[in-house]
Structure formats: C-alpha cells, structure tokens
Amino acid sequence: MKLVRAISKQALSKVAEIVVAANPNRESSSFRFNARYYMLIENRIIKAVVGLRRLSWYLTEIKHLAVPQRFRGRGYGKRAVLEALKKARTPTVCATVRVDNNVSLNLFLRCGFRPVMEFDGQSGKVLLMFNKVHEEAGNEKN
Ligand SMILES: CC(C)(COP(=O)(O)OP(=O)(O)OC[C@H]1O[C@@H](n2cnc3c(N)ncnc32)[C@H](O)[C@@H]1OP(=O)(O)O)[C@@H](O)C(=O)NCCC(=O)NCCS
Q1: Per-residue pLDDT at 141
Q2: Is 76 in the pocket of ligand 1 (CB under 6 A)?
Q3: pLDDT tens digits for 78-88?
Q4: What Cα–Cα distance (Å) separates residue 124 from each residue in 68, 69, 89, 98?
Q5: E strands within the chain?
Q6: Residue of the nearest CA to atom 20 in ligand 1?
Q7: How far apart are CA 2 and CA 38, in angstroms?
Q8: From the CA of 53, how far away is ligand 1's center (Å)?
Q9: How many domains does the chain have?
Q10: CA torsion through residues 1, 76, 47, 127, sign
C-alpha cells in the first residue's frame, strides 16, 4: 500500500470523483483543486484520497479526505492521514471536521490531532484540529 501523488489529469479527476461521491451535499462543479492530492493505492485500486495544502512556513492543511464507501472501516482513511503527515513539510498540520462527523473526528484524534476551537462553517459547526509533526520541518527551506 502506497500514498502516491495525483498529478495527471486522469488521476486528479479520479480524486475529484471520490471526494464528490463521499460528500453527497457537494456539487461536482463546486470541487476545486487547491491542494496537492494523494491517492492511497493497494493492488492498483484507490482506497483513499487526501489533499495537502501548505498555508504558511509552519502550517499545512489536510483536506478532502475521502474513502470510497465500499472500503470504509478498514483503516484506509487513517493510513492515508498518517502517510500524508509524513509528506507535510511544515511543523504543524491542521484540519477542520464537522462536529457531527464522528467517524472523521475519531480518525483525526487517533492520528494525534487535538481539537482547538469550534466555529460556524459554511455547512454547520466545525472543529479546528491541530497536530504537531516533525520538529525539524520548520527549518527546511522550501
Ligand atoms: C471519514 C472517512 C475518511 C474515514 O475513513 P475510513 O477508512 O472509514 O476510516 P478508518 O477505517 O481508517 O478508521 C479510522 C478511525 O476512525 C474511527 N472510525 C472508523 N469507523 C468508525 C465508525 N463507524 N464509527 C466511529 N468511529 C469510526 C475509528 O476511531 C478509527 O480508528 P481506530 O480503528 O484506530 O479506532 C470516511 O468515512 C469517508 O470518506 N467519509 C466521507 C467523507 C468525510 O467525511 N471525509 C472527512 C472530512 S473531514
């Protein structure tokens, strides 16, 4: 199992398809590629997708995490986040999760994220969560 970057148009459209299918309220036309996207691949099948968006020298946002319905509950989402954390080149990583999304909340907690504050998002209350990754990341030039 490997987390690989989606670069080709074909790979990116697969990512968009999985994200849109995982978020029934999201219109496919509203999906914007505004991050580096990765695919967790096992036996040539995409088991999870996740985006990383660098916000500053010290902070990266994890977004658009999604696992196709038929593969849920088997650890792929968690694995995708843990692998994505290794790809982040900043000392801290954040994510927002809707307060009613228990599965995702548990997942981020299990991956070491800690809730910091709650606020009103576009589609209800969301929790802002942070994680500290590698100490040396903030020293990298990039
Ligand atoms: C959220 C999502 C990515 C989780 O992916 P997944 O592969 O099913 O999750 P995993 O099997 O890796 O489980 C990871 C953790 O989530 C929690 N979890 C998983 N299934 C759960 C369930 N049914 N109920 C409660 N917690 C659950 C557990 O804490 C689990 O960790 P543990 O097994 O070490 O205790 C997936 O459900 C999904 O794509 N949902 C729709 C899109 C979405 O909500 N994305 C997140 C936006 S922030």
Answers
A1: 44
A2: yes
A3: 999 999 999 99
A4: 23, 23, 30, 7
A5: 2-5, 36-42, 45-54, 59-66, 92-98, 114-121, 124-132
A6: 73
A7: 10
A8: 21
A9: 1
A10: negative
Give the residues across from 53 on adjacent strands: 61
- Judge whether 60 and 86 are in contact, CB under 8 Å: no
Domain that holds residue 117: 2-139
Atom of ligand 1 nearest to the CA of 80: 12
pLDDT in the model for residue 137: 56
As given in the structure block, the two tokens for residue 63 are 């977004």
pLDDT band at 32 (very low <50, low <70, confident <90, very high): confident
- CA neighbor of 49 nearest in space, from 96, 92, 90, 83: 83
Distance set, CA 60 to CA 24, 29, 138 (Å): 26, 25, 11
Query: Structure tokens of 77?
Result: 């989402």
CATH number of the domain enclosing 100: 3.40.630.30
The half-sphere exposure of 112 on its side-chain side, counting CA atoms within 13 A, is: 13
Is the entire prediction scored with pTM above 0.90? yes
